[in-house]
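From the thread on structure requests for the teaching lab: each student submitted one protein with a one-line request. Submission from student K.M.:

"Model Quinol monooxygenase from Nibrella viscosa, tokens only."
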Amino acid sequence: MLIRFVRMTFQPDKLGEFMAIFDQSKDKIRAFPGCRHLELLRDIDKPNVRITYSFWASPEALEAYRQSELFRTTWAATKMLFADKPVAFSAEKIMEL
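Reply posted by the TA:
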């Protein structure tokens, strides 16, 4: 299983627009083949930062989503609202305690 983090810094006055985009797409993303989990987090120290945290069945499942029309349209609308470059990375769990 692949765990994906995407940290996005938004223009403070654009957070409402982002939430509207996320609300419209979250169920579609969650239902995308291979998506096992999706969360939206807020940075406690930086109120205009949001982080998506998702689980994917495989790197191929994530890549299929990234090549989809759903991702292209959602990301195109979202990136217009950024105040800084997003940071994305994937990880896999080694150990749970």
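TA comment: The first strand starts at residue 2 and ends at 9. Helices lie at 15-31, 59-66, 69-79.
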